[in-house]
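Q: What would this chain look like folded?
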Amino acid sequence: MTSMLTSPLPTQVEPLLSRTWWSFRNTLVLVRRGVNRIIREPSQLLDVTVQPIIFVLLFVYVFGSAIQIPGGGNYHEYLIGGMFGMALVGTAQGTAVGVSTDMATGLIDRFRSLPIARSAVLAGRVVTDLLTEVIAIVVLAVTGLAVGWGIHNGVADALAACGLCLLIAFAMTWVGACAGMLLKNPEAAQAVGFIFFLPLTFVSNTFVPTQGMPAWLRVVANWNPVSAVASSCRHLFGNPNPSANTLAWPMQHPELATVLWSIGLIAIFAPLAVSLYRRKSLR
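A: My prediction, written as structure tokens:
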């Protein structure tokens, strides 16, 4: 009787494992394609190489002298933690522009005609963009060390901070993938990036402490996921973190808040992006 009840299980599990492995292989192929395209056109890396350096130098040497840190501390060290959050959350804009470009040039249509997993098309793009963010982490770390930033906690905490940055970056790439699927051209995707993602970065504790903001804006900034990841990096790197004195829950538990924000964004936008892709495939 037991064998009769359990015998259908392999026939149910094997197709699922086969589809999962097939999707995984398709994703790897598309990631390899994306990496090769970046190697052929290294200018695509300007947003994760040159842009972070410009922002760091601009705020350190132009605005830094006018910004005071509550409780004291080196603004250079305060800034770099926020820059990790800014650079990696900004991944969404690059993904939105990339997906929108692929849609406008007909590349997505060619992928639809191929016998590949539909989820692999977007997953390949997301993973490729995530790999470029590793370069952003290295560039920011080197630039930060050059302007006086340092890691005062152990290596384990520093690696945990980088892991949280990549986690939120992965979540934000799915947000960008949804935006890219909904927008009809790269120009619109770029505009949405400036309208949505840029304010998301500046209405946070990325560049300035939230204590000096109006009360209503301070609430928005303290619950901003960018503020959570910036505070996490500052805490784990051992840098000045005046947000720790803020009573808002995300600022008291920034690492947990970053994880929860990431899980929530992935749970919402990853299935939505795949659903949008499938709907467009049926048209």
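The CA atoms of residues 168 and 262 lie 5 Å apart.
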